[in-house]
């Protein structure tokens, strides 16, 4: 049996996907880049991964080469009362095992639409719950705000990964996001936990970057991933190309860092078989 087939069988045995929200109310921290490349790195070893674009800007969809402005059906339609079959919205990306629920500017109307809905915070859960058995992981790219859409993501997630840039204002944002997570945990989703914090756009030459990372390590301890994502022009270039960096420049430093992050993530998730298979792909 190949390593990838072993991973698929291990994934199938788990029953339901683990849902992870990538969240930070501050924009420009590498959240979408992390969603795309972490998802692609997991898919590389045969794991079934669904990416959910929950940002009206549609950055995640664009990063995967989807002409999101021209889409007839998106996540917005799935959140509406007369939702289409989810398979009519689902897109198979160019990366094997990696699927996408796309988004565009239409999603900005969802906030208004959901306000008067009963159980509005669980609207996304009602969309994803029926297909959780199809995937090993579902990664949700949240918009850069603590909006109703973000609360929907937190309400259906098992864990949260927080990408953060090493600057002072990011520290303040972490505290605010932690407060929001605590409220969601108390009122909507008791299983929600912090899966980890990943430092992005890290420049080890800058004293300020090192100081901020050290401060986060002191405060959050093991919840901070050891893997750090470096700042590089490769990421915006791969976005323009409409591909994850892991396939557009597979031997680049950034691609290897996201594979290392995937290994760490899988180890924390208890998926030792998948983590071992990903290690064999180095």
TrEMBL record:
InterPro entries per record: AAA_dom (IPR025669), DNA_Partitioning_ATPase (IPR050678), P-loop_NTPase (IPR027417)
CDD domains (UniProt xref): ParAB_family
Span of domain AAA: 18-193
Signal sequence, start to end: none
Pfam families: AAA_31
The protein's name in its UniProt record: ParA family protein
């Amino acid at each position: 049996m190949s390593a990838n087939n072993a991973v698929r069988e291990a994934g199938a045995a788990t029953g339901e996907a683990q849902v992870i929200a990538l969240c930070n109310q501050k924009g420009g921290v590498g959240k979408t880049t992390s969603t795309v490349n972490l998802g692609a790195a997991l898919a590389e070893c045969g794991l079934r991964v669904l990416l959910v674009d929950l940002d009206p800007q549609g950055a995640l969809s664009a990063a995967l080469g989807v002409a999101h402005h021209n889409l007839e059906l998106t996540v917005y339609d799935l959140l509406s009362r007369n939702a289409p079959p989810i398979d009519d919205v689902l897109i198979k990306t160019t990366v094997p095992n990696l699927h996408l629920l796309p988004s565009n500017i239409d999603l900005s109307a969802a906030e208004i639409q959901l306000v008067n809905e009963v159980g509005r915070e669980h609207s996304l859960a009602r969309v994803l719950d029926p297909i959780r058995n199809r995937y090993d992981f579902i990664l949700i790219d949240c918009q850069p705000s603590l909006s109703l859409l973000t609360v929907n993501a937190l309400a259906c997630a098992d864990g949260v990964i927080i990408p953060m840039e090493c600057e002072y204002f990011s520290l303040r944002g972490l505290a605010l996001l932690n407060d929001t997570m605590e409220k969601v945990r108390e009122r909507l989703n008791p299983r929600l936990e912090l899966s980890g914090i990943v430092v992005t756009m890290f420049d080890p030459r800058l004293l300020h970057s090192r100081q901020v990372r050290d401060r986060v390590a002191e405060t959050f301890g093991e919840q901070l991933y050891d893997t750090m994502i470096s700042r590089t022009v490769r990421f915006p270039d791969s976005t323009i190309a409409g591909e994850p960096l892991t396939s557009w420049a597979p031997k680049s430093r950034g691609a290897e860092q996201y594979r290392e992050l995937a290994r760490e993530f899988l180890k924390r998730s208890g998926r030792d078989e998948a983590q071992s298979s990903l290690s064999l792909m180095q």
